[in-house]
Amino acid sequence: MKFIKSTDKTTGEAVQLAYFDYGTGKPVILIHGWPLSKEMWEYQVDDLINAGLRVIAYDRRGFGMSDRPWFGYDYDTLTDDLRAVIEQLDLNDITLVGFSMGGGEVARYFTRYGGERVSKAVLVSSIVPFVLKTDDNPDGVPADAIDGMLAGVKEDRIGFLDNFGKEFFGVHFLSHPVSDASLQYYRTIAAMASPRATLECIKSFSYTDFRKDATAINVPALIIHGDADKIVPPETSSQQSSKLIPVNQCINYEGSPHGLFYTDKNRLSNHLVSFITTGTAIAIEPSYASDSVILPSNDEGLVTRD
Fold it and tell me: Which residues form the AB hydrolase-1 domain (predicted)?
C-alpha cells in the first residue's frame, strides 16, 4: 500500500492517505463518495488505463486504509488533502472526478487553489452545489432528514449502512440492479470507515454551500446524474450545478440511481473516457450500458453559461 502525507493546516497533525497510481498519460484523480473508499472505482480503473490515462485514487481521511484522525473533516481540510496528492505526485493537466461527496473537493479546489494544474472536472452523482434546504435553496434536503441520518448512524451504524446501500443502488421490490453479494461487499467497505468520519462527513456534505465554488470552476466540466437518484436528488444537485458552472455538459441517466459507478459502470466509463480524451462526452443510449468502452464521434457539446 502506498501513502501520501498530508499535514492539517489547523492542528499540524500529519495524516497518511492511502492511494494507488496506475497507468501512464494524462492523470485522472478519482475521489470516492461517502461512505465508501477508493475501491468503489474498480469498474472504471481498467477502462481509463486502457484508454491511455494515468489513474490515481486515494482514500479520504477516515475511510479505507487512510489514517483516522479525530478532526479535519471539513471541506477546506479535505481539499488540502487533495492538494497534497497533486503536489507530492507532481501532477499536471489533471482531470478531477468526484463522486457524490467527492464532488465537494472538486468544487472547493477551484476556490481554495484556483484550479491550479487542473484542466477538466467531472461531477458524478455529486452533492454540488448545496444539499441543505434553505429559503434560497428550496429544493434541498430538509434538516430533519439530515438529522435522521445522523441519528441512524449513531444508533446502529451497520444497520443504517445496510438499508442505505439498498437505496444507494436503487434496490426495491421491482428492481434489483445489484447482487446481494455486491450489496454486502459495499456495506463492508462502508463499515470499515471510522465511525467519527462517517458522522462528521454527513455534516460536511450536508451543510457546506458550494454555490460560489461551482461558479469558480474555470475549466470544462462534465456533470452526470441519475434522475432516479434518491440519495442526492438531481433537483438540488445537477440541475442547479449545470446553471452555475460556466462551461459544462450535463448528462441525465434516465431511471438510474445514485450508485452509477456500478449500476451504469460501462456507460459511465464511456462518458469519462470520451470527455477526458476528446473534451466532449458522447451521448450513449441506455442499451449500450453493457457494451465495452468505445469512442464514437462527438454529438454532444459543452454549454457555456452567460
Answer: 26-263
Among 28, 6, 145, 148, which Cα is nearest to 82's? 6
Q: What is the pTM of this model?
A: 0.93
Range of the domain at 169: 2-304
Q: Coil, helix or strand for 172?
A: strand
pLDDT at position 176 is 76
Residue 118, helix vs strand vs coil? strand
Strands, DSSP E only, in the chain? 2-7, 14-22, 27-31, 54-58, 94-99, 118-124, 221-226, 247-253, 303-304
Task: Output the pLDDT for position 82.
Answer: 98
SS3 241: helix
The total of structural domains in the chain comes to 1
Q: Domain of 129: which CATH number?
A: 3.40.50.1820
Q: How confident is the model at residue 297 (pLDDT cuts 50, 70, 90)?
A: very low
Q: How far is CA 111 from CA 193, 252, 269, in A?
A: 28, 27, 28
Residue 304's pLDDT is what?
Answer: 62
Dihedrals φ, ψ of 15, to 5°? -125, 130
For the cut 70, the answer to whether the pLDDT of residue 302 exceeds it is no
Do residues 278 and 297 touch, judged by C-beta distance below 8 A? no
Q: Which residues are catalytic?
A: 100, 229, 258
